[in-house]
Amino acid sequence: MKRFAVLLGASGEIGESIALQLAESGWSLYLHWNTNPVEQLAKQLALHYPAQEFIPVQADFTIEGSAQQLAENVYDAACVIVASGQSLMKLLIDTSEQDMEALWQVHVKNPISAIRSISPFFHRYTKSYVVFISSIWGETGASMETMYSAVKGAQLAFVKAYAKEMAPSGTRVNAITPGFIMTKMNAILSAEELQELEEEIPLGIGTPQDIADAVDFLIGGRADYMTGQTLRINGGWLI
Fold first, then answer.
1. How far apart are CA 54 and CA 163, in angstroms?
2. Could you report the per-residue pLDDT of 215-226, keeping only the tens digit for each?
3. Measuring CA to CA, which residue among 168, 149, 147, 139 is closest to residue 229?
4. Fewest Cβ atoms closer than 10 Å to its Cβ: which of 17, 21, 122, 191?
């Protein structure tokens, strides 16, 4: 029997690494994307894993109601992974209402709405999973990223509450808080800035695969006595 996971944010580097890892572990995937199509990724996965299914689904999570658009294209799921998101680096005084609304929709409202719409499928399974890829800033906060920190913190609060709500039905709900992960988004940093960061983090800078491995652990059966927890995958940056 195929196991389907809905991967929100499959087009990002962390999302793609998660997709590759979960496909290797036997999952069929709904691959959500917004501006960067994932058809090539879906074809690549289907070629390597012909017994599984890989279905691209487009939805713009900055828009109200897009979660329902996504959910209407999902026909089975034992897992939802929230790896979608967008960053914002601004002083709060310079942050517009539109900025705040977009962050809320992308990181909180639409992912939670998608989970709400997809969760009836969970009752088909004795065990099901929800994983949020949050952020170290959701735990400790970041200057110049006040609103981003706020919505990432909201994700962690949701995980704790939803874990209690869903435990009786067998759904495990957990979060991962990455530290500094090397992706294209960090290309704006100079070599000197990267060097300073690497020296600040006890285990150095992380990779998308570090996050993918943690997701695989949480939904692979080896962490089934964990729920409502936050895994800090940050190289010792926050202890």
1. 28
2. 999 999 999 999
3. 139
4. 191
